[in-house]
Amino acid sequence: MPSLADSASNLGVTSDPAKVMGTSARDAASESGGNALDNHHDNSSDFSATGNPEDSPKRLLRRGSSFELTDEQAESLMSIRLEEGSFSSWFIGFVVVKFDILEGQKIEDTYPCSLRLSPVETQGVCFSAFPDAMAATVGDHVYSFRVSGKTHEDFFYGSVFCRQQRDAREKRGFFQKSLVLLANWPAFTLMEQVVQLAGPGFFQSGIEWIHAVADDISKWPHRNAGMHYELPLAGSVLDCVAPLHMRDSVWKHCPTQHNCKPLSSVPYKPFIKQSMLLWELIIRGKPLLVIGHSPPLVQQMVVCLSTIISPILFAGDYRPYFTIHDCDAKELLSESGPPKQSLIIGTTNPFFLKMAVHWPHVIGISGSEGTVPSDAPVIANKPSNVTKTLQPSNQQLPNCILSNLNPILKMEKSALQYMQQASSSSSSDSGLRMHLARVTSEFLQPFQAYIQPCASPGVPIPVLPLFDSAQFCSSISTPMLGATFRKPPLKEVKKVYSDFVQTSHFFRWFKLTRAQSLASALKSVLNGNIANIEQSLSSLGEVRLVDIMLRIQDDLLPPAAVGSEHEDLCEGVLSALLTAVPSDLEAHLRRQMKLSH
Question: What's the mean pLDDT in 414-426?
Fold first, then answer.
């Protein structure tokens, strides 16, 4: 299979030389007499995006071979090629979706050919592949989404390169087709960069271009947790930081700041002064509806919002771009009850305003990337204000927050001045994120007493203090709080903590942090005098010993809803502790704790 540069050379296709193609491709384009993609907005409908039949996946593999392959053999070899490379450690595959006037959205092609989607996944991809915007806009659109899945875990992610343009040859005079890249982790920034590079070539040359892109990706190093990568693709170098918890079935779905736009840019920039209100809404798990003019803006805003409580990872449900046809729409937008907690939805369809009149917090986003944003005011939220304030005027929405929540904190003047005087957007973003991270860290200060293991009388190994959320909230006093949270009325501060301890992101952060702390303490003890530990443990009664071991197991190995990355560590530490237990109890404890021998 040719490389991307080879394909570009063979086809005479180039794009922006500074951004897209390597030297060989630029030279090839020069020799072929020009830039074939310069006018892709005007002539993309000349290409079916299925490519020449001679350039199909099967023909591509046969080309240059001394023997002929059957269709089945060609498809099998393509799948093996991807599996042997690293493509599958980064992405699921590419899907081509076309809008047909008679059949609606339908999948036209996939890559690799072995890619299969469940009916639910197919519906989610097809309806998310086109802008459900307030006005049909001609041109190219790049944005991302998150939908429910079955074949590819609970959720999977897509980044779209959608082309919409007028074409008299189409039945309704309009051409719509999308290239979608799918992944099982929220690599929004990386995925959008890939489709931005792959999209123009795909619409010029068809599926062969995607073969070449996938072949380049298959040469990337395999993805490892927490690593920073510089990934070559089509003459560009893409930056990516793999999440620390990428192998965990729960934590790998949590978005991070590496996968969103800077807070100092559109669409978040008009809301900087309201950052503490937004921070409080997210930390308390309040449902948020984000509505705007275009999928890119609402998607970027949703992802930004989900990262502003760092170092806590947002563990709620977030839908960067949500359509009325999503299989979860009836459940998430039910008018029969209050919206789900810790839910952030982004949409461009005004119909959502009618369905979400009862939502307590709604954010309106104005304009587009090229407009100068105005600061967003906070408006009292009542049904009449939702439809009146957010009614599009000339297809524009105002920047605003509809909410009745009075935040306990305000943005500090010094922080705002720093961001306003910052020499660059990156400096401003860094300053705002540091401010928000400091606020979050101070907010977590009262939990420190429940995270540090301590020794119990007569027990030679450390255990974690018991935690009761109701008792904790009622016992909060001013001296327990960080300096920032000593200023507001204590009664209002307690309300924030009371909501926070009910959220999924608190539950996962608290359990995981306690498990890490306990594991570290137990390792230190086990590296000490094991003879003293054995003597002390043997002096405990059987009931007390079993209770302690089960308590340690529960704290080291949190429930499945939290994650499984500590499973091996838990078993290793417990097995080491069991070597210090009297032999007649060891087998009994192993059976009760379901540990291997």
Answer: 73
